[in-house]
Each structure stands twice: as C-alpha cells, then as structure tokens.
Amino acid sequence: MNIRTLPFLKAHGAGNDFVVLDEEDGQIPPELTHWSRVLCCRRTGIGADGVLVIRRSAGVIAMECWNSDGSRAEACGNGLRVIARVLYLREVVSTIHTDAGPVAVESTQTESGDFIAKTILGPITIDEEVNLDLHGEIYCGTPANVGNPHLVFALADFNGEDPVRQLGPSLEFSVPGRVNVGFYSVESKDLVHLRVWERGCGETLACGTGAAAAVRVLQAQGVIGPKVEVRMPGGALQIQSVEKTPELLEISGPARINFSGMLHIDPDKEGPTEFDLQFEGCANSIKS
User: What is the pLDDT at residue 288?
Assistant: First the structure.
C-alpha cells in the first residue's frame, strides 16, 4: 500500500474555521468535493466550515475555497485573511487570486503578538430589493455581490425564536445557484450586529463577504457611516470604505492558526484515510 502524507493547518478568522492545504507541500487534486466533505465533518473528520487550498503557478498565489458540503465558493473574506496569516512567516504576499478575481491583502502583527490581516473586497454591487414568499410570509431582502452572491435582511423583520436557523436553509435555496444569507441589526452608525447562513455550510461564526455585503447595503441606504464595526458570534471585523470608492471596502480582523497535522492518503481511495493532529505537543490519530 503506497500511503503518502500531506501537511495541513487548522485555522480560523473570527471563528470561521478552515482546513488549509498548500500545494507547495505536496500534490493536491484539482477537484476536492469528496475531500472537503471528509475533512470538514465535525464528527469523523478534522471539522471545519471549509477547505482552503493555496495554489501556486508562475509566482502567482491563488486561493480555492471548498465548502463543507463539497461545493466550491467563488470568494471567502475570512479565508483570504487566513491565507494571508498562513503565508505571513513564509513569504511576502500583497495579492491573492480567487475565483472572483485578484484581491489585495496586507498582514501585520501587533505588539502583543496578535495577527491582523486586511483585505479589500469589491467592487460590491447591489441590486433592487426582492420580495420572497416563504411559508406564506413575505420577506424583503437586498441582493449584493461581493464576488459571491448574498441576500441581506433586517433580523427585526422576522418572527420566531431563531429565524436564522429556521429560515436560513429555505432562503439559501430561494434563488438559482443558492445564496449566502445575512441577518443584520443596527445598533448605531458605526456598529452592526450580523449573523450569516452561508451557502454550502450553514450558519458560521463569521463571514467576511457577508459582513461586506451587509455594510455596503446599509451604507447605500444611509443607515451607517463609512467606518463600522461588524460584530458576529465569533468576533468582530473592522470595515471602512475606500476613499472616493465606496464600492470597495477594507476589512480587517483576526486570523489565527489552531494546530497543524498530517493527512495520510491512500491513492486507491477518494480521500484521506487518517489524520495525525499536532496540538500543544500532543498527537492524536483519527481514522475516517
């Protein structure tokens, strides 16, 4: 049996967590539908919202994002900051290419050692509001595109104990190709609270492109100012308009590496068969 190994990192941006693979460390298949399902499973795999792949070609750094359901996302704001964090100690990177196009990134480290990554997303486009009929109720949402599609709603417009989890799945499938769904509440001109039901993985603790979509929609409505903090269950992102270009938003926030490990891959099977985790000096073996 010719088992090969491939290093991985587990990392997160404001709680939005990923398994990170770098093709510099070994061969990674071009299609990861099965791999992402196996690796992201929180019961039998490593557990994550998605898989990020660092692709390299002729000096160009590119990021692929695979959701936990095996689908591929065009863009991922938190994923970009995570990749910037992973590459920070290896090489200087100012641009990361995505399926939605190149994105500018900047990496810094505070005096306390915390890592902060910045990205500029956009141009963000906004379409006319849409009315959706769900279970006999009409909900008004605003479509926005941040390289990937979003529908933005006011949380106050919904009834029920937990509308994000109750209606998120139906809203995700309410448009062809599915959509990310954001539920916001505005506390002040410079503070927004947000929860996001993400296409392909359900509710996440944070969503960078979702935060950008909500901020741009609210700015266009005159509800908030050019600089705002977006608080999500996993943490906060600082977002501000790029001067003279409001369709572009600069997003900054934390990105951290949780632990590293090794995938064991059987070429006769579709995906990894075992994972070795290294965390604070301890190693555990998990068989899929």
Answer: 40
